[in-house]
Structure formats: structure tokens, C-alpha cells
Amino acid sequence: MLFVRIMIVKSVISSLWTAGPDLLERAVGELSATLCAAPAGTGVFFRADDVAVPGEACRRMMALFRDHGLPLHLAVTPAWLTAPRWAVLREWAGDADLWCWHQHGWRHVNHQREGKKGEFGTDRDRDAKAADLARGRARLEEIMGESFCPVFTPPWNRFDAETGDILLRAGYAAVSRSDGAQRAVPLPPELPDIPVNVDLHTRREADPEQGVRALVDEVAAAAQTGRIGFMLHHQRMNAAALEFLDRLLAVVAASGLEPIRLDRLRGAAGMKKTRPPHV
Questions:
Q1: What is the Cα gyration radius of the chain?
Q2: pLDDT value of residue 264
Q3: How many CB atoms lie within 10 A of CB 210?
Q4: Fewer Cβ in 10 A, N or C end of the chain?
């Protein structure tokens, strides 16, 4: 069977991660104060997008979460995954009970004719979207087996209301978009939506100082909502971004924030039971 393996992934490093060590050290200090002062019961989760192809940045990212004992939700693009690639990722995962391997669209291809990009938007008919969702899930279940979690993260963090209905009827346990997409296209309570609200690596600030300030403010605003969802893109991490992530995870681990697992939410009891002992 032929699978399209065109990869729509950017590796541009945001200006934030060209900041000098003094600026990043200051950011770590401010974030530490913010996270430690977050309201009691504040949840936190991390979601890494565009996963499928093993590489050094991906390996180091996973190693950091394993070292700090914090869970990571890995959004895997089905058309990019092969059995040999999965074998490498599983080896890196080891036996840690930390990973939520879930679905990131089908091919990560834009189908919108204008406006914001989307793989599952209004410019496609219901049957086409349902077919791609089913195709992607079947491929991940075939390759991952019991490691697959029926959670869905859409490419570009958005989908239309029709796709939400398809996901609900198909028995997905949860989705994760952006908080903006959550407000634009609400979902029924039977399909929990845990959005990201902090972007670590696809930032667009013009210079490092602006990037640091914006990130610190973003985390502070997220903390006030009672839930902080960090979005990661390992292809956009350089040495500074990886060092910062290491420091951030140490702060989170010591902060008293409550880690969220999308595969263990209320309503997840109806999930297909596909988790192995280490997930």
C-alpha cells in the first residue's frame, strides 16, 4: 500500500531561541516565580506536534521528559510513520509511564482554498474528512498496536464543527487544539478538549527580548485560567531551546502543578483499550 510521505514541517528557529544566556536565565527565573505562585489545582500538560521521524532533537526532547518524570503527549502524523521509525521511537520511550502517542491528522496537508490553513476544515466534504480520519487512525493502530491513544490533535490546531462530530461518533476520547480554536468551534462535553495556550517554538516575535517578554506573559495568563498547555515542535529546537526546556521541566516538576493526561480524562473510560503497561 502506498502512503504519501510529503512532510510539511518548518524548522525555522524563533528569535527567542537566539537570546543570550542572561536573557534566558531571567526568563527561567520569572517563569519559576509564576508557576510556583499559580493557583492551587492548576493543571499542566505538554504536547509535541509533528512527531513521526526520529531525529536527534526528538530524542533529546523525549529524554528530558523521561529524566524529569513528566508526561508528554506526542501528536504523530500517520502518513509519516513507518514500522522502522516506530521501533526507534519506542526504544527511546523505554518503559516510562509517560507517553500519550496520538493522532495528528492524516498527512498534515492544507485543504483550505483561502484563509487559515486546515486539513479538516470547511472546504472538504464530510465523507472525505471521515475517510482521512479513519485512514490515519487505522495506520497508527496497525503500527503502534496497543500504544495508540484515541486522542486527536489537528494540524494547525483547528478543525470545523463537522469534524468534531465525526470524532465524537468515531469514539475518540479527547482532542487538543488551541484555546482560540476552542472558542471558535466549541465541542460537546462528551468530547473533552484540552487546548494548548503556550507556544514554545513557533513564535514570531521580531527579536529575542520581545520573545522572552511575550512567553513570560503568555505563561502568566495561562496560569490564571487554571490550566497551562505547552506546545512543542522539536524540529524548531536549537541548543538554547533544549537547555531552556530542561530548566522549565525542572521548575514544573518542583512547582506542585498537577500534570494532565489526555488519555486519562473523565470520559476516557469509553476509549478503546489500547494502552500497554508502560503508557
A1: 18
A2: 87
A3: 14
A4: N
What are the domain boundaries of the chain?
15-270
> What are 79's three cell numbers?
502518513
State how far the Cα of 191 lies from the Cα of 194, in Å rounded to an integer: 10
Q: Grid coordinates representing 67?
A: 529524566
Specify the DSSP element, H or E, that contains 151.
strand 148-152
CA atoms within 13 A on the CB side of 109: 15
Q: Which helix (H) or strand (E) holds 252?
A: helix 239-255
State the architecture of 15-270 in CATH terms. Alpha-Beta Barrel (3.20)
Query: Which residue do the cell numbers 517578554 mark?
Result: 213
Among the ranges given (123-127, 154-158, 177-181, 270-274), the one the predictor scored with the smallest mean pLDDT: 270-274
pLDDT for res 8 = 53
**Measured at the alpha carbon of residue 73, what is the angle toward residues 70 and 78, in degrees to the nearest 5?**
150
- Contact between residue 226 and residue 42 where contact means Cβ atoms under 8 Å apart: yes
Separation CA 97–CA 202 (nearest Å): 28
pLDDT single digits (tens) 55-65: 999 999 999 99
**pLDDT (average), residues 177-192:** 93
